[in-house]
Write a structure and sequence with these properties.
10 strands, 248 residues, three-stranded antiparallel β-sheet, alpha/beta, seven-stranded parallel β-sheet
């Protein structure tokens, strides 16, 4: 894992977007297509704005996959991650070769996991843009995370700390509005990505960042598994890096 620390959140976001754009261009040059994963947490907002503005990316040769979504939420719901990605990324760079979203309002969530699982299996991922949650989660894989399942997507129940984070970031007005189940890309599927661009701003992420980088690899801190990925680049602002050894 390589870490890069920036003075401001915007500098961090711009650097992460540049790294992502370079990975996309490299994949297109190498095989004519780039397969990417995008997350939608608050940590990704600024990065996605910079990525949309990247020059020289042939978006028509890009296939996008969606990291996670609440169960029971349709594409028009104001808190839909699908809606956010469509409006703030897909519509801005269109046309893509393809955009594969998780349908949170699917009649059968288990079947929806299988549907998107088959699709991602056919598209080996070149770069995944992810964040780290306040409880160390990756996607909606809260502690203790399942490090073993090989299924690409699973149904999960976000824990209280995760749901409080969603509330604190302003996605919902009250805790009882937040769905209790979600479809999440699994840890093993995320790790299959050739490159991980992990963007983590803010002081509230300082403790999970320290645990992920300097603690043991454990399901109790899902992000600690990133230590085992050969090409994981971690982009931090100074507050998020403030508890790392030697960074004070």
């Amino acid at each position: 894992m390589r870490k890069y620390i920036y003075r401001t959140r915007q500098e961090m976001a711009a650097a992460a977007a540049s790294s992502t754009a370079q990975a996309i261009k490299h994949a297109i040059r190498a095989k004519g297509q780039a397969n990417i994963i995008l997350g939608t947490g608050a940590s990704q907002i600024d990065m996605l704005e910079h990525l949309v503005a990247s020059e020289g990316v042939d978006w028509l040769k890009v296939v996008m996959f969606h990291l996670d979504e609440y169960i029971g939420i349709g594409p028009d719901h104001p808190c839909s991650f699908r809606k956010y990605l469509k409006e703030c990324f897909v519509d801005e760079v269109a046309p893509l070769r393809a955009a594969y979203f998780i349908k949170g309002d699917a009649e059968d969530p288990a079947q929806e996991c299988k549907r998107v699982g088959v699709l991602i299996h056919a598209h080996p991922i070149d770069v995944a843009c992810i964040g780290i949650g306040e409880n160390g989660h990756l996607a909606f894989n809260d502690p203790p995370a399942d490090f073993e399942t090989q299924e690409p997507y699973i149904i999960v129940q976000p824990n209280e700390r995760c749901r409080q984070q969603q509330l604190g970031e302003g996605w919902f007005e009250s805790l009882d509005q937040i769905p209790t189940y979600a479809i999440s890309m699994t840890i093993r599927q995320i790790l299959k990505s050739k490159q991980l661009v992990t963007t983590v701003p803010d002081l509230r992420k300082a403790e999970p960042v320290k645990n992920a980088l300097e603690g043991p690899v454990t399901p109790q801190c899902p992000a600690s598994i990133l230590q085992q990925h050969e090409h994981c680049d971690l982009f931090l602002d100074e507050p998020a890096a403030s508890r790392l050894s030697g960074e004070r």
